[in-house]
Every structure is written in C-alpha cells, then in structure tokens.
Amino acid sequence: MNRIAGVQGVVEKIKRRLPKSKFARNVVVLAGGTALTQGLLLLASPILSRLYTPESFGVLAVFTAMLSILVVISSLRYELAILLPEEEETAANVFALSVLVVFGMTLLIGTAVFLFGDTLLLSLKAEKMLPYLFLLPVSFLGLGLYQSLNYWAIRYKRFASISRTKFSQSFGMVCTQILAGLFIKGPAGLLYGDVVGRVSGSGTLALLSWRYDRHILRKISLSGVGKAACRYYRFPLFSSWSGLLNSSGLQLPALILASFYGPQVLGWFALGQRVIGVPMTMIGQSVAQVYTGESSRLARQNPEQLLRLFYQTAKKLFFIGLLPSLLLGIAGPQLFALVFGGIWYEAGRYIQILSFMYLIQFVVFPLSQTLDIIECQHVHLIWQIGRIVLIIAALVSAAWWKAPPALAIGLYGGVMAVGYVILFFLSAMSIRKLCGTDKTAKDVA
C-alpha cells in the first residue's frame, strides 16, 4: 500500500508540474515526443559518422534536399486548409482533395525524375546517387500522404499519436542505416534508411484516421471535393509557391554547396544539419503544429488573443534555444571532433558559424504559418521571393569569387537570420491589421 501511495504521489507531482493550459500541454506532448525522437538520432550519429564518410553524407544531403524542396507542393498546400473548416464534412473533403493531389503530383514527379534526373545529379556532382534515383518518387508519395494525414490528426488534437509515429519513423530509419552500414559500402544504407523513416508513418496514421473518423470520411463526395478546391484556391495559388520558395531557401544551399564545393564539404555541412539543424527544426515543427491549430481558431474568433499567443510563443522559444546556441557558438568544433571523430571537426566549425542563425530560425520558424492562417499568403510569397534571391546571390557570389566554404556558409547564415527577423515583424504587423479590421467590423455591426 505504501508503495502504491508513493507512486501516486509522484504522479500527482508530475501532473502539478505540467502546464495548465491546453495549448501548452499539447506543445509538451509533441515537443516531448520530438525530443525523444531526436535523442535517438543524436545517439546514433556517432555510430553513423564512423560507418559512413563525409562524401556519403553529402549524397544523402542531395537526396533529402531535392525531396524537401519537392514535397512541399505534394498536395499544393491543401493540407493546411484541413484545419480551417468548421464543418466536419467540408474538412473531410479538403482532406480527400489533398490526398488526390498527392497521387497526381507523384506521377508528375516520377516522370520528371525519369526524364531529367540523371542530368540533374551529374550537375550536382552526385553521381553516386544515380542507382537510387527511383527512391525519390517513392519518398515523395509516402511523405506527401503523411503530411495530409498529419494535419488531419492535428485537427482532432491527436498529438500523442503524432509523437509516437515520429519516434517509430526515426527508430526504423536509424536501425536500417546502422545495419546497412555494417554490410554495404557507400551511401546506400543512408538512403534506404532515410526512405524507411519518411514513409513508415503514413500507414499508422491512416489506420488511426479510419478507426476513429470513418463516419466522417464516408461523407466525402466528388462535388464536395470540387467545392473544397474552389473555396481554398488561395493555397495552391499562393501558399504552394510560398512553401516551395521557403523549402528552396532552406535546401538550395546544400545543392549549391554540392555543385561548387563537392560532396565532402556538403557532407560536413549535412552532419551539422542532421545533428543540430534538424532537431531544432523538428521541435519547432511540433510547436508549429499546436500553434497552427490554436491560431486558426483564434484568427476566426479573437485576433487580439492570436497576437498575444504569437508574442508569448516567440518569447518562450527564444529562451529555450538561447543556451544551446551559445554553447555551439563557443565550442562547436571541439564538441564535434570529440563526439563524431576528428574528421568531423570542420562540421563543428560550420555549426559555430551558423549558431546565431539557428536561434533566430528556432524562434520564427514555428510562427511562419501565421500569414497563411490569416490569409495573407501574398505577403508571405513576396517575402519568400526576396529571401531566396538573396540566398542564391550570397552563395553564388561566394563561389564565383572562390571564397572558402566557411565564408560562403557565413553569408548564408547572415541572410537567413535577417530574413527570419523580417518575417517575424511582417507577421506581427499583419495580425495587428487583422485586429483593427475585426474591431471595425464589430463597430459597424
């Protein structure tokens, strides 16, 4: 009895320490699951860095960069609209629309890969990826479906299920990469493991959705899908281009580095992204998923509360990310050489250069969907165009003047940081404008 009472006491203490608000609790669930996932990846990285060369990581980086750029338009951003309708039937039709678009885009991407893939890889100095090019449309389909299913799960606040799915994806990826690395030379193990990790979550979320939501999904109709496509036309018209430009801004540096500096430099950059950039981005995505669900409701009902949520989320993210960024800025190269082996010292140097940019990205990235939620997609698109032009100009200029890779990466980090600061203020100004419009409408009524 005393033991049971003791366990109950511990449980009660944990409950008291958990955040009280639903929003904060949901963030803890998703961010906690993501932290476990990234912990697994971090634990595996010292093993992988000794099984695979920087060149192999460079080939993987080319693959993931191409996939990340393309998958943003897998459903032409209709997946973002799944959260918006108040009627369940309308939301189900938007979900069906996004899934149908994913299949159509997969056929298009597969055709493009068949016709032009070889030429593209040769230009990127990634010839070692040629035998595995067929994996690109496979990953595109799996990840595209996962995105739509993920937003459907967010609509019903199934954050624990999303967290479990993320962990199982990472576990499958890491196990495949380690086992393959023991028996297969070259980048094959990294590529196959990445594909397994990216596509494995779709089936789990699909079964979960059918189990709980089949009564809603059975209301899907062809006419309903057509109406949804017309109602939310702004997403393919503006958000898809904005998302494509955003992912290009994030991923083009890898492709440019591969083209001008070769796979070894890209491999160093890629390990840094894997160990630092990806975990910070994924934790940010977990916050973003909860923020998106909450902010879409507040945008309709209480824009002033949305502005408060925007600032509070940014403030908390800043203090969470500050200490890790300072640590990397001070001792990044030494930490990387110690943990991953001496050959990876240069990767730590790149992370040291980018530490401030990572902090700004960690704060602003989860809030980046704000302009889409309040239907200011045109503002987001203009920002994306400006940023990507500056990123390309910075990296190409560095390569043109034969600057060392570290300088090119520093220019990239500076442009990224400034771009995110501008996006933060554009989002805040747009919410303030929405607050003023909402007040005017109420006064007229």
UniProtKB/TrEMBL annotation:
Could you confirm whether the keyword Transmembrane helix appears in this record?
yes
Domain of life of the organism encoding this protein? Bacteria
Tell me if Transmembrane helix is a UniProt keyword of this record.
Answer: yes
Kindly list the GO CC terms recorded for this protein: plasma membrane
Q: What Pfam families does this protein map onto?
A: Polysacc_synt_3
The main location class comes to membrane
Q: Where does this polypeptide localize? A: Cell membrane
What keywords are assigned to this protein?
Cell membrane, Membrane, Transmembrane, Transmembrane helix
Q: How does it sit in the membrane?
A: Multi-pass membrane protein
Q: Which InterPro entries match?
A: Poly_Biosynth_Transport (IPR050833)
Spans through the membrane: 23-44, 56-73, 94-117, 129-146, 317-344, 350-368, 380-401, 407-426
Record-given protein name: Membrane protein involved in the export of O-antigen and teichoic acid
